[in-house]
Amino acid sequence: MRHWTITREADGLATLALDRAGASTNTLSAAVLAELGEALDALDRDPPKGLIVRSGKANGFIAGADVDEFGEIATEEGAIALVRRGWDTFERLAAVGYPTLALIRGFCLGGGLELALACRYRVAVDEPGTRLGLPEVLLGIVPGWGGIKRLPRLAGAPAALDLLLTGKTVDAKRARRLGIVDEAVPVRIMEPTARGVLKALPAPRRLPFLQRLALTPIGRRVVAAQARRQVARRARREHYPAPYAIVELFAKHDGNALAPAPSDPASIATLVRTPTAENLIRVFRLQERLKSLGKEGSFAVRHVHVVGAGTMGGDIAAWCALRGLTVTLQDQDAQRLAPAMGRAAKLFEKRLRDARRVRDARDRLIPDPAGHGVARADVVVEAIFENADAKRALFADVERRAKPAAILATNTSSIPLEDIAGALADPSRLCGIHFFNPVAQMMLVEVVVGRQTRREVVADAAAFVRAIDKLPLPVKSAPGFLVNRILAPYMMAAFRAVDEGIAPETVDEAALAFGMPMGPVELADTVGLDIAVAVGKLLGPRAEPPRKLMALVEAGHVGKKAGRGFYAWKDGKPVKQASGAVPAGLADRLVDPFVAEARAALAEGIVEDADLVDAGAIFGTGFAPFRGGPLHYAARRQDVAGPARTEPVPVV
Amino acid sequence: MAEHEPIYIVDGARTPFLKSRNRPGPFAASDLAADAGRALLLRQRFAPSDVDEVILGCAAPSVDEVNIGRVAALRMGCGDKVPAWTVMRNCASGMQALDSAIADIRAGKSELVLAGGVDALSRAPLLYSEAMVHWLSSWYAAKSLGQRAALVARFRPAFLAPVIGLMKGLTDPMVGLLMGQTAENLAYRFGITREQMDAYAARSHARTLAAQKAGHYDAEVVPVYDRAGKVYTADDGVREDSTPANLAKLRPFFDRKYGNVTAGNSSQVTDGGVWLVLASQRAVDERGLVPRGRIVDAQWAGLDPAQMGLGPVHAATPILRRHGLALNDLDCWELNEAFAAQVLACLRAWESDDYCRSELGLPGALGAIDEDRLNVDGGAIAIGHPVGASGARIVLHVLNVLERTGGQRGMAAICIGGGLGGAMLVERV
């Protein structure tokens, strides 16, 4: 066998270890699954007293199915074959006569968790890398290898559906609390625990009575109805059919994705008929590509110095400290630093929960009004107010004091890099590292490449962006870079629609129906209308400014932060009326300028290729992920309106 | 000691001293130590991991900060490999940390040491009374329902009255006196009146306010930030309204009713932390450090615990004698203000032929310290006395005063609960 190794031990136990040949990470390809069948054959011939299934790789357990084989889902037959081979193999594993145990260390995702669930016991190693989950729904598919069947029996229906429908992962301790694993133990006792469990053969945990009731046919319908309502709040069925299918499979088919008839909305046939799964897998690949952009070079970052403790600077600093870096945060005085320190503490408490980890993150974030940190930093990020002279003066000073190999980066969104670079003795050191607001939520970071920027600096900056677990996108230094530039015409179109008397609610609903995560008017209110105007101004020739927008800004109603913009804001949420019917063509009116600008950006070489335009649009603007990005969407939509962009899109 | 190799003060910093508001303050002791230390370390020419050891004085560490010196060192980013420890000499724990650093540098064990002191007195614990502890022990040992029922019957609400850890800490274990009562002893012995105490306390507040206004404390205080995003930039116990007239209205706290020592003419219960970087000649040379001063000499002394407030007299006098210095040969004195009566008693002792002869073995009185050399920026009565930190704070502050006034030499001296005194002679380089 190439991938699996059976080791028989003196006490009658056996281990079955997966070390997928020719791959750095364990995934369950067709060959790996077929070989698992052979391994089970071999074990059947001479059954062990107990079997430990584990990973032969140091980096984790099993990451899931092999995404490279997902091309199969392009056809119905291919998709069914893919589901069947895992379902059948794991049904067989679940039925073997000897006790089985999955020893889980590191990631245990998708098909990997479904394999573990097919074992009688699970022992998870309690360390930071251990994550268990079924993220299939994020790829627009369903966990078809037994996850929908077995997870509810262990964790109870509500908790299981929560994991199945959100795709979120849990650590070992939480998995233990949920009943997904039998033991969560430190690495030092993982071996004796696995062997001890197989010798003691504890009775499986029984769900409490109510939880058992929820797994009866009637109970399932009740739980499913509730789950459906929750799903409907987050995703529309026409956009994202998979979570709805998961609920149906749970309610009616005990998790067997092969059971529904092809005409059934929960069937695999239905799922693969929409392009959602294909597009979400495309999004996953785009994400992997962006990640790979940070792998060139070997730049190691330990200390980041951020200048400017405003919203952006403060949140960038907090994020870097959250991700384990030492951070010095500079601003003119302690009073200006204080709000950023408070926001950081909140972020740490929300994300880390554990009091010691919160303390450590706070200790890593060092207020530094005098800027001593510059001399120690591997990366200096400037996030002061948008004034070219101030930035030039700052970088001239920073360059003198910084380490020779340190990255010098500006977070500016509006000042050309080249204008700032002139102040440096070595202008080729300067690049842009452009974060989006809110920093903690936005995955994309534009790495801005000025005409003068040295190649290696770009690679180093991308490596830094990866080190803080964001997605780097190298973009050419040009007004608006990629994200703001393609967003602006879309927002502009929304403002025009409002000026014509269409209610903001209706405009937003048109965008939501298209699949945007937030309507453009609400987005403008959230970002701040003053900022929308400022960004618009820099993006080129001026058309007549949108009347309503300008009136609101003049009145000081600049959006969420002022409590009033296009919407009135209450407790951080816009007060919206019913949207009413969306006029035909309104969505196209919003999206077409988006697509056109995306094409123009590609033509100008703002990013390297069309896929990167789409990646930027999805991760930077939230462009409907299930549509695969604006250019992908336009290419698929043969009748795309207004492909030619004859004149500059009017912006504010 | 003067002939030994010099001990350099490279730099120092402290947190603002934050007055206890009768509830746990926003910072744990290790928060204060870490925050002051990381700001200090950030501005050095060496990395935090370059120090040879970290020594922290702390009189009342909390139960979850055992060996708080090590906790602070790790939190400041000194790394796993830098050894760190905690010292305790009550009110002079911070000065003890400096002295321990000096000893290790002199012995050649260390070249570069981060030493300081900290306490978060607002977080001093409430303890179960002894009766309650016994009752609980029986409860946990009880096996039958009957035993438990009997215990319930024996329970008294009075068991629940907590023991205030801070009051225990401020009571002398040998003579059973509260520290304030030892100050009453000194007032009685030297005939110090309530009016004199209150006048001294008012002067401490006035001098601290003036120093804050002039920015004299900016040289040593670094801001600290709490989780809510509030920043603390200055010592917050000092009051504009601490005038003699207002202070006169306060009731005696320690000898109730007819005593003279009040909360107003005593040091405040406060949270704070302070660090100094001490270095050998070799460390200075090799690392290109620019030292600000030197600790020239240090002395500890013992005396009757019931008179502990005179500790500074007994510790500083031998240093003066060794270096042939008169009281006013020093450009500044930081005599820690545990109590107004106690500072005044120290001055009277030096002015007293009788005291100097009988207690110090001197031919006669040493004289009077000029008012404008003593505690020129106020002291613990106005800014507070986080006991573990104060001994290091006054050493750092002597250096700051010398730098500001162009003085050359100064003395930091402190009284220590239990009947001890400590003093350090500091010089500018």
* Greatest interface: A-B, 27 and 18 residues
Number of strands of chain A: 20
Task: Write the CATH fold name of the largest domain in chain A.
Answer: 2-enoyl-CoA Hydratase, Chain A, domain 1
- Structural class of chain A comes to alpha/beta
Provide the low-confidence segments of chain B as ranges: none
Gyration radius over CA of chain B: 22 Å
Count of DSSP helices of chain B?
15
CATH architecture of the largest domain in chain A: Alpha-Beta Complex
Counting helices, strands and paired strands, the structural category of chain B is: alpha+beta
Shape type of chain B:
globular
DSSP, total strands of chain B = 14
Describe this structure in words.
Chain A has 652 residues and is an alpha/beta fold. Chain A has 26 helices and 20 strands. In chain A, the strands form 4 sheets. In chain A, strands 13-12-11-14-15-16-17-18 form an 8-stranded mixed β-sheet, sandwiched between helices. A 6-stranded mixed β-sheet of chain A has the order 1-2-3-5-7-10, with helices on both faces. The longest helix of chain A is centred in the N-terminal third of the chain and has 19 residues. The termini of chain A are far apart. Chain B is of the alpha+beta class and 429 residues long. Among the domains of chain B are: 34 residues, no CATH class; 172 residues, Peroxisomal Thiolase, Chain A, domain 1 (3-Layer(aba) Sandwich), CATH 3.40.47. Chains A and B meet through α14 and α15 of A and α1 of B.
How is the topology of this model organized?
The complex is a heterodimer of chains A (652) and B (429).
Chain A: E1 4-8, E2 13-18, H1 30-45, E3 50-55, E4 60-62, H2 76-94, E5 100-104, E6 107-109, H3 111-118, E7 121-125, E8 131-133, H4 147-155, H5 157-166, E9 169-170, H6 172-178, E10 183-185, H7 190-200, H8 209-213, H9 217-234, H10 241-252, H11 268-273, H12 276-293, E11 303-307, H13 311-322, E12 326-330, H14 334-352, H15 355-364, E13 365-367, E14 379-382, H16 388-401, E15 407-410, H17 417-421, E16 430-434, E17 444-449, H18 455-467, E18 471-476, H19 483-499, H20 504-514, H21 520-527, H22 529-538, H23 547-554, E19 568-570, E20 573-575, H24 586-603, H25 610-621, H26 630-636
Parallel strand pairs in A: 2-3, 3-5, 4-6, 5-7, 6-8, 7-10, 11-12, 11-14, 12-13, 14-15, 15-16, 17-18
Antiparallel strand pairs in A: 1-2, 8-9, 16-17, 19-20
Chain B: E1 7-14, E2 18-19, H1 29-42, E3 53-57, H2 68-75, E4 84-87, H3 93-106, E5 112-120, E6 126-127, H4 130-141, H5 145-154, E7 163-164, H6 165-169, H7 179-190, H8 194-213, E8 224-225, E9 231-232, H9 244-247, E10 270-279, H10 281-287, E11 293-302, H11 311-322, E12 332-335, H12 340-351, H13 353-360, H14 380-383, H15 387-405, E13 409-416, E14 420-428
Parallel strand pairs in B: 3-4, 3-5, 12-13
Antiparallel strand pairs in B: 1-10, 1-11, 2-10, 5-10, 6-7, 8-9, 11-14, 13-14
Helix pairs in contact in B: 1-2, 3-15, 7-12
